Amino acid sequence: MSDPDISVVICVYTEDRWEDILAAVASVRTQSYPALETLLVVDHNAALLDRLTKEYKEVREVRVFANAGPRGLSAGRNTGIAASRGEVVAFLDDDAVAERDWLRHFASGYADPHVMAVGGRTVPIWASGRRPAWFPEEFDWVVGCTYRGIPSGLVRVRNVLGGNASFRRSAFDAAGGFATGIGRDGDKRPLGCEETELCIRLSRARPDAVLLIDDRAVIHHRVPEAREHFGYFRTRAYAEGLSKALVARSVGADKGLESERRYTTRVLPAGVVRGLRDAALARPGGAGRAGAIVAGVLTAAGGYVVGTVRARRGGATFRVVDIEGERDG
Protein backbone atom coordinates (compact mmCIF):
# COMPACT_ATOMS: atom_id res chain seq x y z
CA MET A 1 0.00 0.00 0.00
CA SER A 2 1.42 3.42 -0.97
CA ASP A 3 2.36 5.97 1.65
CA PRO A 4 -0.53 8.36 2.35
CA ASP A 5 -0.48 12.09 1.65
CA ILE A 6 -0.97 13.91 4.97
CA SER A 7 -2.59 17.31 5.47
CA VAL A 8 -1.77 19.00 8.79
CA VAL A 9 -4.38 21.24 10.42
CA ILE A 10 -3.36 23.79 13.05
CA CYS A 11 -6.22 25.74 14.65
CA VAL A 12 -5.30 29.19 15.98
CA TYR A 13 -7.22 31.92 17.74
CA THR A 14 -4.98 34.58 19.31
CA GLU A 15 -2.04 36.76 18.30
CA ASP A 16 -0.64 36.19 21.80
CA ARG A 17 0.66 32.88 20.45
CA TRP A 18 2.25 34.35 17.31
CA GLU A 19 5.73 32.96 17.93
CA ASP A 20 4.27 29.59 18.95
CA ILE A 21 2.23 29.42 15.74
CA LEU A 22 5.30 30.15 13.61
CA ALA A 23 7.25 27.47 15.48
CA ALA A 24 4.45 24.93 15.01
CA VAL A 25 4.32 25.57 11.26
CA ALA A 26 8.11 25.43 10.99
CA SER A 27 8.15 22.04 12.72
CA VAL A 28 5.72 20.69 10.12
CA ARG A 29 7.67 22.14 7.20
CA THR A 30 10.86 20.35 8.32
CA GLN A 31 9.37 16.87 8.71
CA SER A 32 11.35 13.89 7.43
CA TYR A 33 8.06 12.71 5.88
CA PRO A 34 6.85 15.89 4.13
CA ALA A 35 3.30 17.04 4.69
CA LEU A 36 1.20 17.57 1.58
CA GLU A 37 0.07 20.88 3.06
CA THR A 38 -0.33 22.80 6.31
CA LEU A 39 -3.72 24.40 6.92
CA LEU A 40 -3.97 27.22 9.45
CA VAL A 41 -7.56 27.76 10.57
CA VAL A 42 -8.19 31.07 12.34
CA ASP A 43 -11.04 31.15 14.86
CA HIS A 44 -12.97 34.39 14.31
CA ASN A 45 -10.01 36.76 14.63
CA ALA A 46 -9.78 39.06 11.60
CA ALA A 47 -6.48 40.65 12.64
CA LEU A 48 -4.77 37.27 13.08
CA LEU A 49 -6.26 36.01 9.82
CA ASP A 50 -4.86 38.99 7.93
CA ARG A 51 -1.46 38.73 9.60
CA LEU A 52 -1.07 35.01 8.87
CA THR A 53 -2.28 35.43 5.30
CA LYS A 54 0.48 37.99 4.72
CA GLU A 55 3.07 35.87 6.55
CA TYR A 56 2.54 32.84 4.34
CA LYS A 57 1.37 34.36 1.06
CA GLU A 58 4.57 33.22 -0.69
CA VAL A 59 4.55 29.73 0.87
CA ARG A 60 2.59 27.45 -1.41
CA GLU A 61 2.29 24.52 1.00
CA VAL A 62 0.79 26.66 3.79
CA ARG A 63 -2.83 27.77 3.40
CA VAL A 64 -4.75 30.06 5.75
CA PHE A 65 -8.51 29.88 6.32
CA ALA A 66 -11.14 31.47 8.52
CA ASN A 67 -13.19 29.12 10.68
CA ALA A 68 -16.34 28.60 8.62
CA GLY A 69 -18.42 27.45 11.60
CA PRO A 70 -19.27 28.69 15.08
CA ARG A 71 -16.47 29.83 17.36
CA GLY A 72 -14.51 26.97 18.88
CA LEU A 73 -11.91 24.30 18.26
CA SER A 74 -14.28 21.67 16.87
CA ALA A 75 -15.61 23.92 14.11
CA GLY A 76 -12.07 25.04 13.31
CA ARG A 77 -10.97 21.44 12.88
CA ASN A 78 -13.99 20.73 10.70
CA THR A 79 -13.09 23.69 8.49
CA GLY A 80 -9.59 22.27 8.09
CA ILE A 81 -10.88 18.81 7.28
CA ALA A 82 -13.22 20.18 4.61
CA ALA A 83 -10.38 22.11 2.97
CA SER A 84 -7.82 19.30 3.20
CA ARG A 85 -6.62 17.33 0.20
CA GLY A 86 -4.68 14.55 1.94
CA GLU A 87 -5.72 10.96 2.46
CA VAL A 88 -4.85 11.49 6.14
CA VAL A 89 -5.57 14.60 8.21
CA ALA A 90 -3.27 15.29 11.18
CA PHE A 91 -3.86 17.82 13.95
CA LEU A 92 -1.20 19.79 15.83
CA ASP A 93 -1.81 22.26 18.66
CA ASP A 94 -0.85 25.85 17.92
CA ASP A 95 1.46 25.96 20.96
CA ALA A 96 3.33 22.75 20.18
CA VAL A 97 6.21 21.65 17.97
CA ALA A 98 6.52 18.24 16.36
CA GLU A 99 9.67 16.14 16.33
CA ARG A 100 11.14 15.55 12.88
CA ASP A 101 9.75 12.02 12.41
CA TRP A 102 6.26 12.82 13.73
CA LEU A 103 4.46 12.38 10.41
CA ARG A 104 6.63 9.41 9.40
CA HIS A 105 5.37 7.45 12.41
CA PHE A 106 1.79 8.48 11.70
CA ALA A 107 2.10 7.37 8.08
CA SER A 108 3.47 3.95 9.01
CA GLY A 109 0.35 3.19 11.03
CA TYR A 110 -1.88 3.47 7.96
CA ALA A 111 -0.22 0.52 6.18
CA ASP A 112 -3.09 -1.47 7.73
CA PRO A 113 -6.28 -0.43 5.87
CA HIS A 114 -8.34 -0.99 9.02
CA VAL A 115 -6.49 1.76 10.88
CA MET A 116 -8.67 4.87 10.97
CA ALA A 117 -6.72 6.99 13.47
CA VAL A 118 -3.20 7.25 14.85
CA GLY A 119 -2.24 9.43 17.81
CA GLY A 120 1.10 10.20 19.39
CA ARG A 121 2.83 11.21 22.61
CA THR A 122 2.69 14.80 23.88
CA VAL A 123 5.46 15.97 26.20
CA PRO A 124 5.01 19.09 28.39
CA ILE A 125 7.37 22.08 28.19
CA TRP A 126 6.85 23.78 31.55
CA ALA A 127 7.15 27.59 31.51
CA SER A 128 9.04 27.45 34.81
CA GLY A 129 11.52 24.99 33.34
CA ARG A 130 10.44 22.04 35.48
CA ARG A 131 7.32 20.16 36.52
CA PRO A 132 5.72 21.63 39.67
CA ALA A 133 6.53 19.22 42.51
CA TRP A 134 2.85 18.82 43.40
CA PHE A 135 1.64 18.14 39.83
CA PRO A 136 0.92 14.39 39.31
CA GLU A 137 1.87 12.81 35.97
CA GLU A 138 -1.47 11.00 36.10
CA PHE A 139 -3.12 14.38 35.42
CA ASP A 140 -0.92 15.62 32.57
CA TRP A 141 -4.07 15.60 30.42
CA VAL A 142 -4.97 18.77 32.34
CA VAL A 143 -2.26 20.56 30.35
CA GLY A 144 -2.95 18.72 27.10
CA CYS A 145 -0.20 16.12 27.42
CA THR A 146 0.16 12.35 27.55
CA TYR A 147 -0.51 11.17 31.10
CA ARG A 148 0.69 8.24 33.19
CA GLY A 149 -1.67 5.37 32.54
CA ILE A 150 -1.62 5.40 28.74
CA PRO A 151 0.20 2.25 27.59
CA SER A 152 3.57 2.77 25.91
CA GLY A 153 4.62 1.58 22.46
CA LEU A 154 2.23 1.03 19.57
CA VAL A 155 -1.12 0.20 21.17
CA ARG A 156 -4.77 0.01 20.25
CA VAL A 157 -6.93 2.56 22.10
CA ARG A 158 -10.53 3.72 22.42
CA ASN A 159 -9.63 7.26 21.43
CA VAL A 160 -6.67 9.40 20.41
CA LEU A 161 -5.90 12.78 22.01
CA GLY A 162 -6.81 15.69 19.76
CA GLY A 163 -3.73 17.92 19.96
CA ASN A 164 -1.49 15.20 18.53
CA ALA A 165 -3.59 12.98 16.31
CA SER A 166 -4.35 11.93 12.78
CA PHE A 167 -7.36 10.40 11.04
CA ARG A 168 -7.91 8.77 7.71
CA ARG A 169 -10.00 11.18 5.63
CA SER A 170 -12.60 8.44 5.08
CA ALA A 171 -13.17 8.32 8.86
CA PHE A 172 -14.96 11.64 8.65
CA ASP A 173 -17.03 10.44 5.71
CA ALA A 174 -18.18 7.52 7.84
CA ALA A 175 -18.75 9.27 11.18
CA GLY A 176 -19.02 13.00 10.48
CA GLY A 177 -16.76 15.66 11.94
CA PHE A 178 -16.06 16.94 15.42
CA ALA A 179 -19.14 17.78 17.48
CA THR A 180 -19.54 21.47 18.23
CA GLY A 181 -20.64 22.43 21.73
CA ILE A 182 -18.29 20.00 23.51
CA GLY A 183 -14.74 21.28 23.08
CA ARG A 184 -12.89 24.53 23.61
CA ASP A 185 -14.12 27.97 22.61
CA GLY A 186 -11.26 30.47 22.66
CA ASP A 187 -10.52 31.59 26.21
CA LYS A 188 -13.74 30.30 27.74
CA ARG A 189 -13.90 27.40 30.22
CA PRO A 190 -11.31 24.77 29.15
CA LEU A 191 -13.67 22.05 27.97
CA GLY A 192 -12.53 19.02 26.02
CA CYS A 193 -13.42 15.45 24.99
CA GLU A 194 -14.51 16.27 21.45
CA GLU A 195 -12.00 13.77 20.08
CA THR A 196 -13.25 11.11 22.52
CA GLU A 197 -16.81 11.52 21.31
CA LEU A 198 -15.70 11.42 17.67
CA CYS A 199 -13.60 8.28 18.15
CA ILE A 200 -16.43 6.41 19.86
CA ARG A 201 -18.83 7.51 17.12
CA LEU A 202 -16.31 6.37 14.50
CA SER A 203 -15.99 2.93 16.08
CA ARG A 204 -19.76 2.58 15.99
CA ALA A 205 -19.98 3.65 12.35
CA ARG A 206 -17.04 1.40 11.43
CA PRO A 207 -16.93 -1.57 13.83
CA ASP A 208 -13.80 -2.83 12.07
CA ALA A 209 -11.96 0.45 12.70
CA VAL A 210 -8.61 0.29 14.48
CA LEU A 211 -7.40 3.31 16.48
CA LEU A 212 -3.78 3.44 17.58
CA ILE A 213 -1.35 5.44 19.64
CA ASP A 214 2.29 5.32 18.56
CA ASP A 215 4.42 6.92 21.27
CA ARG A 216 7.24 7.51 18.78
CA ALA A 217 5.12 10.27 17.17
CA VAL A 218 6.19 12.97 19.62
CA ILE A 219 5.28 16.61 19.98
CA HIS A 220 6.38 19.08 22.66
CA HIS A 221 3.57 21.17 24.10
CA ARG A 222 4.12 24.49 25.83
CA VAL A 223 2.52 24.83 29.27
CA PRO A 224 2.17 28.52 30.19
CA GLU A 225 2.88 29.70 33.72
CA ALA A 226 -0.82 30.26 34.44
CA ARG A 227 -1.49 26.54 33.95
CA GLU A 228 1.14 25.46 36.46
CA HIS A 229 -1.07 26.52 39.37
CA PHE A 230 -3.63 24.52 41.31
CA GLY A 231 -6.41 26.95 40.39
CA TYR A 232 -6.15 26.02 36.72
CA PHE A 233 -5.77 22.34 37.62
CA ARG A 234 -9.06 22.45 39.48
CA THR A 235 -10.86 24.46 36.77
CA ARG A 236 -9.70 22.08 34.03
CA ALA A 237 -10.70 18.99 36.03
CA TYR A 238 -14.18 20.43 36.59
CA ALA A 239 -14.51 21.25 32.89
CA GLU A 240 -13.47 17.69 32.02
CA GLY A 241 -16.33 16.40 34.14
CA LEU A 242 -18.77 18.67 32.30
CA SER A 243 -17.44 17.44 28.97
CA LYS A 244 -17.57 13.78 29.97
CA ALA A 245 -21.25 14.20 30.82
CA LEU A 246 -21.94 15.38 27.26
CA VAL A 247 -19.95 12.51 25.81
CA ALA A 248 -21.86 10.00 27.95
CA ARG A 249 -25.13 11.54 26.81
CA SER A 250 -24.05 11.28 23.17
CA VAL A 251 -22.61 7.76 23.09
CA GLY A 252 -23.83 6.20 26.35
CA ALA A 253 -22.08 5.91 29.71
CA ASP A 254 -20.83 2.39 28.94
CA LYS A 255 -18.52 3.52 26.12
CA GLY A 256 -18.26 7.14 27.20
CA LEU A 257 -16.71 6.19 30.55
CA GLU A 258 -15.13 2.84 29.73
CA SER A 259 -11.50 4.02 29.81
CA GLU A 260 -12.19 6.41 32.68
CA ARG A 261 -13.34 3.58 34.94
CA ARG A 262 -10.03 1.78 34.48
CA TYR A 263 -8.16 5.04 35.01
CA THR A 264 -9.94 5.88 38.26
CA THR A 265 -9.86 2.36 39.72
CA ARG A 266 -6.29 1.38 38.78
CA VAL A 267 -4.07 4.25 37.68
CA LEU A 268 -5.12 6.91 40.19
CA PRO A 269 -5.05 4.76 43.35
CA ALA A 270 -1.52 3.68 42.40
CA GLY A 271 -0.62 7.35 42.01
CA VAL A 272 -1.93 8.18 45.47
CA VAL A 273 0.10 5.33 46.96
CA ARG A 274 3.26 6.57 45.19
CA GLY A 275 2.65 10.08 46.48
CA LEU A 276 2.15 8.94 50.05
CA ARG A 277 5.23 6.72 49.83
CA ASP A 278 7.30 9.65 48.58
CA ALA A 279 5.95 11.78 51.42
CA ALA A 280 6.96 9.11 53.93
CA LEU A 281 10.45 9.10 52.41
CA ALA A 282 10.58 12.93 52.66
CA ARG A 283 10.71 13.32 48.87
CA PRO A 284 9.51 16.70 47.57
CA GLY A 285 5.88 17.01 46.54
CA GLY A 286 4.71 13.52 47.48
CA ALA A 287 1.86 14.61 49.72
CA GLY A 288 0.91 17.34 47.25
CA ARG A 289 0.67 14.87 44.36
CA ALA A 290 -1.47 12.48 46.39
CA GLY A 291 -3.73 15.34 47.46
CA ALA A 292 -3.97 16.72 43.91
CA ILE A 293 -5.08 13.32 42.58
CA VAL A 294 -7.85 13.10 45.18
CA ALA A 295 -8.90 16.70 44.56
CA GLY A 296 -8.84 16.19 40.80
CA VAL A 297 -11.07 13.13 40.98
CA LEU A 298 -13.58 14.82 43.27
CA THR A 299 -13.65 18.00 41.17
CA ALA A 300 -14.11 16.10 37.90
CA ALA A 301 -16.86 14.02 39.51
CA GLY A 302 -18.60 17.21 40.59
CA GLY A 303 -18.41 18.56 37.05
CA TYR A 304 -19.83 15.32 35.71
CA VAL A 305 -22.82 15.50 38.06
CA VAL A 306 -23.52 19.12 37.13
CA GLY A 307 -23.07 18.36 33.43
CA THR A 308 -25.41 15.39 33.60
CA VAL A 309 -28.15 17.46 35.27
CA ARG A 310 -27.75 20.24 32.69
CA ALA A 311 -27.87 17.79 29.79
CA ARG A 312 -31.04 16.16 31.12
CA ARG A 313 -32.67 19.56 31.46
CA GLY A 314 -31.69 20.47 27.92
CA GLY A 315 -29.23 23.11 29.04
CA ALA A 316 -26.31 21.66 27.11
CA THR A 317 -26.49 20.88 23.40
CA PHE A 318 -24.09 19.95 20.67
CA ARG A 319 -24.13 19.25 16.97
CA VAL A 320 -22.41 16.59 14.91
CA VAL A 321 -21.23 18.09 11.65
CA ASP A 322 -20.96 16.32 8.30
CA ILE A 323 -17.93 17.70 6.50
CA GLU A 324 -20.01 18.36 3.40
CA GLY A 325 -22.96 19.70 5.41
CA GLU A 326 -24.55 19.65 8.85
CA ARG A 327 -26.92 17.37 10.66
CA ASP A 328 -28.45 17.60 14.08
CA GLY A 329 -26.72 15.54 16.80
Summarize the model shown:
The protein is of the alpha/beta class and 329 residues long. Helix content is 41%, strand content 21%.
Please describe the structure with a list of short key phrases separated by commas or semicolons.
single chain, 329 residues, alpha/beta, two-stranded antiparallel sheet, 11 strands, 41% helix, disordered C terminus
How is this structure best described in words?
- This protein is an alpha/beta fold and 329 residues long.
- Helices cover 41% and strands 21% of the residues.
- The protein is built from 10 helices and 11 strands.
- The strands form 2 sheets. Strands 1, 2, 3, 4, 5, 6, 7, 8 and 9 form a 9-stranded mixed sheet that branches.
- Helix 6 (194-205) runs parallel beside helix 7 and helix 9 runs antiparallel to helix 10.
- The longest helix is centred in the last third of the chain and has 27 residues, at 286-312.
- The two termini are 35 Å apart.
- Mean pLDDT is 90; it is low at 325-329.
Poorly predicted segments? 325-329
Helix content: 40-55%
Counted beta strands: 11
Number of helices in the DSSP assignment:
10
Secondary structural class? alpha/beta
Give the terminus-to-terminus CA distance: 35 Å
**Overall body shape:** globular
Mean pLDDT: 90
Biggest sheet, in brief? 9 strands, mixed
Strand content: 15-25%
Question: What's the quaternary structure here?
Answer: single chain
Q: Would you list the SSEs in sequence order as H and E?
A: EHEHEHEEHEEEHHEHHHHEE
The radius of gyration is 19 Å
